[in-house]
Amino acid sequence: MKIAIVGTGYVGLVTGTCFAEMGTDVCCVDIDARKIENLQKGVLPIYEPGLEEMVGRNAGAGRLHFTTRLEEVINEVDVLFSAVGTPPDEDGSADLKYVLDVARSVGRSMERYLLVVTKSTVPVGTAEKIKQAVREEQDKRGVSIPFDIASNPEFLKEGAAIKDFMSPDRVVVGVESEKAKELMSRLYRPFLLNNFRVIFMDVPSAEMTKYAANAMLATRISFMNDIANLCELTGADVNMVRTGIGTDIRIGNRFLYAGCGYGGSCFPKDVKALIKTAADNHYPLRILEAVEAVNEDQKQLLFKKLLKHFNGDVKGKRIAVWGLAFKPETDDIREAPSLALIDKLLEAGCRVSVYDPVAMPEARRCLGDAVEYANDIYHAAEDAEALLVVTDWKVFRIPTWSVIRKLMACPFILDGRNLYDKEELEVAGFTYHGIGR
Question: Which CATH topology does 299-433 take?
Answer without folding.
Answer: Rossmann fold (3.40.50)
